[in-house]
Amino acid sequence: MTETPVTPDLSVIIPCYNEGENVPLLFARLIPALEALGVTFEVVTINDGSKDNTLERLLEMQKAEPRLRVIDLSRNFGKEKALSAGLFHSRGRAVVPMDADLQHPPEAIADMLVKWRDGAEVVFARRDARTGQKLSEKLFAKGFYWVFDHLSEVRLPREVGDFRLMDRKVVDTINRMPERSRFMKGIFAWVGYREAEIVYRQGERAAGTTKFNAIKLLRFAFDGLTSFSNFPLKVWSWVGAAISTLAFLYIVARLIRTMIWGVDVPGYESILMSVLFLGGVQLLTLGIIGDYLGRVFDEVKGRPLFIIRQLYEPGER
């Protein structure tokens, strides 16, 4: 088998979490697709604290494929951190992150390379449709993109995930970014550079089930928004001003009414509603401030993005 050069033409990065069933299916398509490109390549896989036999399957694949490198993290750090680990350890002149479930077709990398050779430094892979998703999930995605575009200075390309090609200079720029709260789609868009795109048809998940549920997706969306926008902090100044204005107008109206018609019996319901409404606004405001403060806390601690238990290079075992 061909040995991987120190600086291959292409690095493919694949974060894996409980993807043991998908590993053999993935490499059965990935390696032939990469060999057909006529370039030198490496495949960097990251075992993100899997609880199944993902690591064992990857190491089995490495015995027959010397261009496969396996990074075993000490625990589950999440996809964004695992992807960052792959970017840090990639060596290729071009880098392509992709998922392990074959929803990202390896054959599409050939089209990305064409755009890259034509001068593009970032090549987006835009899905033509969301395969295997419920209507509620599709509507949630559309809503998230709309909110992100209107509240953030960074515009996310529509229907584009982590599947893309990046030039070495782009990856080096991302690796120099010190932030620990990482929303990779936003980071990929923020760095800029010359862009191009291809369109691909998203496949069905080869095996297993998705690791995201509604709560995780909602938290992921909120993390993305707060990573690239301080609008959730600023908006409460306007909310407070609006509530204060309405309260002042209400006070004036009550004073005029009292002077004209006298004092009436105060309403218990109106007082209760006012207290509950203002209390809810205050708690919501504190929660959002707490989220931003937590991000500052994480940055100040300066802990590493991830911890590698072992890096399995070909031929070292």
Average pLDDT over all residues: 77
Number of strands: 8
- CATH secondary-structure class of the largest domain: Alpha Beta
Q: Provide a count of the helices.
A: 10
How would you spell out the order of helices and strands? EHEHEHEHEHEHHEHHHE
Account of the protein in words:
It is a single chain. This protein folds into 2 domains: 10-214 and 306-312, Spore Coat Polysaccharide Biosynthesis Protein SpsA, Chain A, CATH 3.90.550.10; 231-301. It is an alpha/beta fold. It has helices spanning 22-35, 54-64, 79-89, 109-117, 135-151, 168-175, 184-190, 214-228, 231-261, 268-301, and strands at residues 10-16, 41-47, 68-73, 94-97, 122-127, 160-167, 195-200, 308-312. Helices cover 50% and strands 15% of the residues. Helix 5 (135-151) runs parallel beside helix 8 (214-228). Helix 2 links the parallel strand 2 (41-47) and strand 3 (68-73). Pfam families: Glycos_transf_2. Its main location: membrane. Keywords: Cell membrane, Glycosyltransferase, Membrane, Transferase, Transmembrane, Transmembrane helix. Residues 11-172 form the Glycosyltransferase 2-like domain.
